[in-house]
Amino acid sequence: MKKITVTATILIAGTAVAAFAHGGATGTVKERMDAMLVMGKAVKAVAPMMQGETPYDAETVRDAARLFQRHAGESMTKLFPEGTGGMPSEAKDEVWTEWDRFAALATQLEEYSEGLERAADNGLGGMNGNASMGGATMMGGGSMMGSANSMMGGSTMMGGNNMMDAAAIAEMPADAAFAMTTQVCSACHERFRAEED
């Protein structure tokens, strides 16, 4: 199964679980759960386009990217004040014990979604077919999409000092930019979101 499909599937499944888990959430916890739910729905709307299952629509991609931007960066981190963990929150304690890493991923989501917005007019580049761009395989082993270590919270890409900027993401085909953006979501969920039993 392709990496973009796996990432989108995880995010979509998490949206359904989150909708059920919202019962009993209030205040800031409910606000952040609602924000995550909205972003998950945006992923669900865009993922079939990226897989070639539905017609590609650049405006829908731009709308999703703008929505991610509204809920990323400081907008996201302000929804995680200390003392808002525990049920019904799905946030792990690591959000607060590894705050710099969490905040870096929130910032990275903002940056990558800005790049995704700008990449929307680039159309699809064939990510669902493991295509390459500029000689670098996008989904391959030692390439741009890289291994789990480099993409999923390692020090080199996700939340690290060598983060790509929006301008670099904007040069990619939209499906590659979408994959990069949703990888940030997955990295954050993997590290900071409690698994449902």
Describe this structure in words.
By secondary structure, this protein is an all-alpha fold. The chain has one domain (3-192). The chain is built from nine helices and two strands; from the N terminus they run H-H-H-H-H-H-E-E-H-H-H. A two-stranded antiparallel ribbon has the order 1-2. Helix 6 (99-119) packs antiparallel against helix 9. The protein is globular. Residues 15-21 and 129-157 have low confidence and may be disordered.
Question: What's the short version?
Answer:
With 197 residues, the protein is mostly helical. It has helices at 3-21, 27-50, 58-70, 73-77, 94-97, 99-119, 148-151, 166-170, 174-192; strands at 132-133, 136-137.
Average pLDDT over all residues: 79
Helix tally? 9
Helix content: 55-70%
Number of strands: 2
Q: State the separation between the terminal residues, measured CA to CA.
A: 25 Å
Sheet-strand content, in percent, reads under 5%
Poorly predicted runs of 5 or more residues:
15-21, 129-157
Topology as H/E string?
HHHHHHEEHHH
Shape: globular
Layout of strands and helices, then pairs:
Layout: H1 3-21, H2 27-50, H3 58-70, H4 73-77, H5 94-97, H6 99-119, E1 132-133, E2 136-137, H7 148-151, H8 166-170, H9 174-192
Antiparallel strand pairs: 1-2
Helix pairs in contact: 1-2, 1-9, 2-3, 3-6, 6-9
